UniProtKB/TrEMBL annotation, chains A, B, C, D:
UniProt keyword annotation of Lyase present: yes
Protein name in the entry: Amino acid lyase
Boundaries of every Aromatic amino acid beta-eliminating lyase/threonine aldolase domain copy: 17-298
This protein's UniProt keywords: Lyase, Pyridoxal phosphate
Matches recorded under Gene3D superfamilies: Aspartate Aminotransferase, domain 1, Type I PLP-dependent aspartate aminotransferase-like (Major domain)
Length: 350, 350, 350, 350
């Protein structure tokens, strides 16, 4: 049986070869464990520099759900809640990890997968203007993903507006950057690590989907939220014994800009896919990043799935479906072109 | 300053005099604690009889939030979730009590404050048909309130439909009966304790809002869900040392039908209020129970609040508001008539 | 069958008659719910005055386990732990309520049921001097009971020493006063509400075991720990709808010193029991409060249990047992004398 | 500055070269994520075969704390507790991870770091014979580590005795095998994967300390405990996106016996260390595995630490200390010999 080509997500391959090479070179070195080794220290220092945030605390975790639940557990008191859009990862795809550490996720519909400052203000007012607010979870943390779960990105103005409303309302702003590099590479992006660090209390730079074997670099910009974070990492099962593996990976990704190059590679191919599919007559949701959402009929889907793995998102209308295709740091131009040729043929044939 | 008349809820007075009298009579008796006394045993037996459910386990808890969180914590594994309507008490008015014991509350819009069998089926399918269902909380328990938080009631047919879908899908059905007596007294009601017990895995008979000082009688109909429930009560802080206070109250309420009489009293007065207000020209949401939801202008609200306490629910449209007024076992005909006279005058004056 | 006389605990009767009388008098008054009524406000003010602690926040909860879990949940971050003696109520008799809200209870053996300042210092050092302290729960709160679970009491000097070590180590001091009135009435007691409030961050005045139907008055002396406490009460299921029942009870108990009189009554009878039993030849553990721990042989125990309910504590040696007998606000001199006569006879007969 | 030689733990290096080599070879393959790839499937099948347990479910997690909290959370209801020895990893070195998922850890002193069947029986009886057992956490799971945290191992007879008591008492037996390979290589060991699987409900084969970069293979032998385990992994943040990394590592370790060879290598060097140190006049705790506990004076410790990293365990007596030195799959004979030469000299010099 022929192997299908995977476009369903951005973590189907291993790691960028530079990372494995570095693992080989450092393999027999002895270091202390649990993220207190020189590699993690250097990587943290590097990230503080890139963020121009000397007082930031940087911690390396293995995965995104772990990062989300550890950060939120560290920041909130038991009666406090996180606010996010309905499609937010913590709201739909983490098996209730946030609730399992005790906190309600208050979801709002948002716009294009994004939370607006008005959404936040509304949730805040709804809570505090109610005479019985003590009977409701208290909104305290704003969770956003950039890029979002549907491939859109926040502008600098939008992020600043969220910061402003958080300041007015005494809320924390937490940005899930599991796919951050793909957002930064979008042609309509005007954010960078510095502006993100300037506006968020906490955010993370995703490695798993960006060429690392695994790893998310959590940056706690707000010094008031840094205390005892390592206890939380350990308690939640996120403290990697051979922590240096995380430091080494982020050093490789960030010290010479590899992270940003990989982001650009994926986004360039995603846009090639996008244009090709639009030209072929497919309808698509807006996205300038590496996730592309295509509307296909049942018939088209069946044909596509003969050769490709894609993510099924949802059914719309009578016989139409939304599917997601992703490029990544590892996607080849060749596979993209083949997909486009096949998609074009499928469209024509029907 | 003149005392305002309270219509904002159904727990502004103490207890039905019979209960206090019985407390006096039994006060110096010595009994064992924690709900293992003869009064609790008799009350439990009485309830099993009324429900025609000999194998049911009956436990007495102090309040509704406590009952909800204890039951749900006892029934679900960590990855499982409760399904309820958006207006459901556990979803909006318990400060995240369910999330605090680790479970997500999956809310759906419902219809007239009620969950339909179709809603449940849809949530179930959405979960299990998703290839990555392990990344989402697993719906396992259906939570409904009867009467609902907006005063509507379930019909027997609706309850049976919910039971049927729960059976098909392997879900538990849990009915919050904090105001059960007011639902059973509604003129369009066709449920009784027996049919409720026949269809629910767990439900409770609310005392706090029905003439008791406090207390909810939790009935676990499904024998498979009864094991070790007393541990949960103790752990969650709900095990009353002088547990007999609960047994005594439910005996007084249920042994001669007082509970049902009190329900009828309140509902009769609520319908009198309803008709009077409609006649006076007010618009009202549908409700055949003791909670009535009236639409009033800002001006009208201001006038009403000069003499009465009411619950503010929400703003609708430009200058209209929904308020809630409740009758209870303790409401006097006199207060109802006075309210109606004032409301009529306010309407006329504008 | 003849009713046995209960000495097994201090909550076998109802409430002091003054309380029931006041319930009757106020029964049909209408008040707002959830502890925001005038009775609770007056009772809180009264307690602040008795404690000479104008800035204290006072909250009324229904029971002791509820008070313990709510306070500890409100004060600690997820990685922090409570320190207490092995016999501490939270360590052994609350079905893991503290663990269920996420916190480890670090137990030390203590001395006479009491935690010493040295114990606390040792636990603190053991934690912070360990290079891998992040791998262990962080001690942050010291939990003591006064009187202790074995009837002993803290002296003012001991309490001040605990305060001092807590100050040095940045720990909170929390005193469980479920039986506080019986401690204050001990002849060797030199504490009062004022000195307790001056030394503790949080403590509570127990009502359930001291003549109330139920109720514990939580006093949060440290203003930094007061924020949002009502959310926690609601979330943990401890917010009584008819909250005034708690305010009324504490007013009755505290406004004319009834609370202290009841304590003295019980302790006087306990000491009478103690002396009588010692004279009759029984061995007893030291206790100057209302709980008395008697050592009895199997044979003696069997005889005693024919007419009395007592608490079985533990087996010691070959055929000896420790039992607990309690007096309370409701114990009669007559019952005490009868018990002594019987105990004397039993001893003689063997 | 000269690099110190690390003996403080068994995870100071990376992975066995075969693993990295295999990562390189498979790096650009595309597979599905989250542990559902062919490598994980093959590794699971291999483990089922080695355990002669065809019905076992095998899941791959990243680390030990994660494995412990996920398993225990999956197996216990909220009021149930784990029983372990005082030195047990879940009791002292996981920052309260088990309590953070809601469960008390009941610790007993044990013998040589091991839990005996008598210990378990005693805890069980203590609970169930108490009239108020509902006021205490219910013991339900027995947690043991093999080798233990102090280097000792269970015999087959001991494990079978634990199984028998668990069967009698309705308890689950869970074995933490973080260092399993070092236990199996001990000269006095009579266990193997088959006998472990035959006696435990759940256990895991540790990879992190045995030559993997990371990874623990959880084997759920008892089919009744297998349901929905993947939900728990996801919720607790333990589901690795590129799950195949775990499958690949366990395939390399287990398919040709490498795992057992590495265990033997470490244990052989540990015994060499042990004999050398004993000959040099050091006192040592009993251990036949890769962790060796040496008693050293303050002076000796200072000298040793000039060139070596060791784990400080505790102070004993006036000026004596217990330190831990570990060998591992990666330890060189050369380093062991150098350490022995230095230790001998230090002893002589004093």
């Amino acid at each position: 049986m022929q192997q299908k080509i995977h476009f369903e997500c951005d973590y189907t391959e291993g790691a960028h070869p530079k990372i494995l090479k570095r693992f080989m070179e450092t393999n027999m070195e002895q270091t202390v464990g649990y993220g207190e080794d020189p590699y993690c220290q250097k990587a943290a220092e590097l990230i503080r520099g890139l963020c121009k945030k000397g007082e930031a605390a940087v911690h390396f975790l293995v995965g995104g759900t772990q990062a989300n639940l550890t950060v939120i557990s560290a920041l909130l008191r038991p009666h406090q809640a996180a606010v996010c859009v309905e499609t937010g990862h913590i709201n739909v795809h983490e098996t209730g990890a946030i609730e399992a550490v005790g906190h309600k996720v208050i979801s709002v519909s948002g716009k294009n997968g994004k939370l607006t400052a008005e959404d936040v203000e509304r949730v805040y007012r709804l809570h505090w203007e109610d005479a019985t607010h003590e009977h409701m979870p208290q909104p305290k943390l704003v969770y956003i993903s950039n890029p979002t779960e549907i491939g859109t990105i926040y502008t600098k103005a939008e992020l600043e507006a969220l910061r402003a409303v958080c300041d007015r309302c005494g809320l924390y702003l937490f940005l899930d950057g599991a796919r951050l590099g793909y957002g930064l590479a979008a042609e309509d992006n005007d954010l960078d690590l510095e502006s993100i660090a300037a506006n968020c209390d906490v955010f993370y730079i995703g490695g798993t989907k960006m060429g690392a074997l695994f790893g998310e670099a959590v940056v706690i910009c707000n010094p008031e939220l840094q205390e005892d974070f390592r206890y939380l990492i350990k308690q939640k099962g996120g403290m990697l014994a051979k922590g240096r593996l995380l430091g080494i990976q982020f050093l490789e990704l960030l010290q010479d800009g590899l992270y940003f190059d990989l982001g650009e590679h994926a986004v360039k191919l995603a846009q090639k896919l996008r244009e090709g599919l639009l030209n072929a007559g497919y309808k698509m949701q807006d996205s300038t990043t590496n996730q592309q959402f295509v509307i296909v009929s049942d018939e088209e889907l069946k044909k596509i799935e003969e050769k490709y793995c894609v993510s099924y998102i949802e059914r719309i209308g009578e016989d139409q479906n939304v599917i997601r295709i992703c490029t990544s740091w590892a996607t080849t131009e060749e596979n993209v072109e083949q997909f486009l040729r096949d998609a074009e043929q499928i469209k024509k044939a029907l």
